[in-house]
Amino acid sequence: MIRTARRRHATSGVMIGLTYLAAILATLPLLLILLHLVKQGASSLSPSFFTNTPRPVGEAGGGMANAIVGTLVLIGIAVAIGLPVGIGAGLYLSEKKTTPLAHSVRFLSDVLNGLPSIVIGIFAWEFLVRPVGHFSALAGGVALGAMMIPLVTRTTEEMLGVVPTSLREAALALGYSQWRTSVSIVLRTALAGIATGALVAVARIAGETAPLLFTAFGNQFWSTAVREPIAALPLQIFTYAISPYDTWHQQAWAGALVLISIVLIISIAARFVTRSRFGAPVD
Amino acid sequence: MTAFSARWLEGDRRTLRVDQAAIGDRFYELITTAAALVIPALVIAIAIAIFAAAWPAFARVGLSIVTSSDWDVVGGHFGAAPAVFGTLVSSMVALIIATPLAIGVAVFLTEFSPSWLRQPVGFLVDLLAAIPSVVYGLWGIFVLIPLLREKAMPFLRDTLHLGATPFFSGAAYGPSMLAAGLILAIMALPYISSVSREVLLAVPRSQREAALALGATRWEMIHDAVIPYARSGIIGGIMLGLGRSLGETMAVTMVIGNRPEISASLFAPGYTMASLIANEFSEATNDLHLSALMAVGASLFVITLIVNAIARWLVWRVSRSRS
Q1: CA-nearest residue of chain A to B19?
Q2: Does some domain include residue A266?
Q3: CA of A18: which chain B residue's CA is closest?
Q4: How far apart, in whole angstroms, are the C-alpha atoms of residue B137 and residue B255?
Q5: Which of A145, A220, A269, B305 is the most buried (most CB within 10 A)?
């Protein structure tokens, strides 16, 4: 009350200015990271990067073809686990909103989502690596799949919740059975949204490294066998980044550029899948 | 009873279809319930896996795994206190840097942003969450650390004379608690800002209009009417960011220097629980060593569980009052 109006308006102006500054500072790191990735990565990308396997230090022409394929294999296993379980659980949650099981599933899904990825890696190691005595793509895929489940569950439930009840009632009134209504009417209506959620989940697990350290482990050679250790792009980037060799550092940048391109393309695709259907992106 | 048997006796096609539908419904319910049950089963399995693997170490050294700072694999001493310290300090540094920025961005996006900027800025900030942590680590090693070593650290220590305080003293190696905190701040920012944005949007219009009608400036409206209303949700967002930072592994491992020492200076290298596991796992020499690493993992599991539970509860309180 004592402060003059002028002073109060000046404070207001300064603070609003600071929020503009915060917006600039917050977007700056992303732009810097992308800038460096493109600058450093593009110069070391070559066709051989996509066709060759890693070579020893000093030998030119090494690539990460096996790691790119390995990452795709791991994503495939993860999707095969995470998508059906996540969609099934999402269907359950949207139809049985208030059962005790629904409440605990919702809570535990949040718990699972918040667990450090390295802890999930330990879990996969304990059940799938330790008993058989060697690392495997399967263990890595299971760890990534476990990380996908809560993400898919949550978006599925949210997207199903948006489907109008009248649609469900109309189908039931026409004599559709409960399950046909759920699967071919409700689920189908929400499909675009669920696809977005699935893509976002894939984008997130594609770059995961920590759970792969002691499950997929990495591999310098070609391998697509699910029972054997498998190479993965993030693991290869990590190994090369902490190595002391300049040529390997260049390879790490190139790998990071490829990895981030994959992740960003999936993320942006996810945005457009929803936009085309509902007019506005849904996060 | 009679109607039921009559239906069976009649055996016409329509009854058959109703029965088939009932079987279909039963089957559908079974499948979705099974899928829902996978989640609790998974969480329980993870808890069992970790605590079973950690048990030999807990039985041997007890809680000194997190209180002692003597980590001697050969001698069988496993005290990960420096890693616990590093986990907490790096996350705190991250929150101190990220929180004002994230809230600033959230306020900007919900209140002040020109509408054409809202989408792109929001999208860019959200994209920070999509960048893989190993890419953050790579950028940290080759861009952030040289920058800290040659510019930022000498500037803080000598030009600003902060070297006199214990927090900014000592040699500027580069890999340090400060580097880890900065990387974690960038990584936590999108989580804090997206939750803050949501709860700020949930603040009713009447709250804003009442403040303005009383003669508040736009900032006073935010500060006195909007933020207090959204406070617990924002704190929930900060806790979520904290949960992420505590468990972050790769980016931190790549920039923190991995030295198991407790130092007050942010310029000194450190260690975190997650990076300890990541670093020593592949070279674990014996079962007890492995088990000790699992015990560190179990401690991390418990800490993040508590932090996340508090976060969810705080966010839930705000969203409940909205509906």
Answers
A1: A177
A2: no
A3: B104
A4: 7
A5: A145
Q: What is the pLDDT of residues B302-322, one digit of tens each?
A: 999 999 888 888 877 776 665
Partners of residue A214 in chain B, C-beta under 8 Å = 281-282
Q: pLDDT tens across B76-106, in order?
A: 889 999 999 999 999 999 999 999 999 999 9
Q: Which residue has the higher pLDDT, B272 or A277?
A: B272
- Answer yes or no: is A273 within a domain: no
b/e sequence A8-31, b meaning 16+ C-beta within 10 Å: eeeebeebbeebeebbeebbebbe
Tokens 């806790």 -> residue: B239
CATH code (residue A141): 1.10.3720.10
Alpha-carbon distance of B73 to A249, in angstroms, equals 32
The full set of domain ranges for chain B reads: 2-61, 64-322
Contact A208 B132 (CB under 8 A): yes
Residues 68-127 of B with CB under 8 A from A: 100-105, 107-109, 111-113, 117, 121, 123-127
pTM: 0.90
**Does residue A165 form part of some domain?**
yes
ipTM: 0.90
Exposed (0-12), middle (13-18) or buried (19+): which is B58, by Cβ within 10 Å?
middle
Q: Which residues of B touch A128 (CB under 8 A)?
A: none
Rg over alpha carbons for chain A, rounded to the nearest Å, is 23
Condensed to tens digits (0 to 9), the pLDDT of residues A146-181 reads: 999 999 999 999 999 989 999 999 999 998 888 889
Query: For chain A, how are helix, strand and coil distributed in percent, rounded to 5?
Result: 75, 0, 25
For residue B182, the chain A residue with the least C-alpha distance is A29
Of B138, B222, B316, which to mutate for an interface test with A (greatest number of A Cβ within 10 Å)?
Answer: B138
Phi, psi of B202 (to 5 degrees): -80, -10
Tell me if B38 and A16 make a contact (CB, 8 A cut-off). no
pLDDT of residue B76: 81
Domain range for residue A215? Answer: 71-235
CATH architecture for segment(s) B64-322: Orthogonal Bundle (1.10)
- CA R_g for chain B: 27
* Closest of A119, A170, A127 to residue A147, by C-alpha: A119
Quote the number of domains for chain A: 1
Residues 6+ apart with CB under 8 A from B158: none
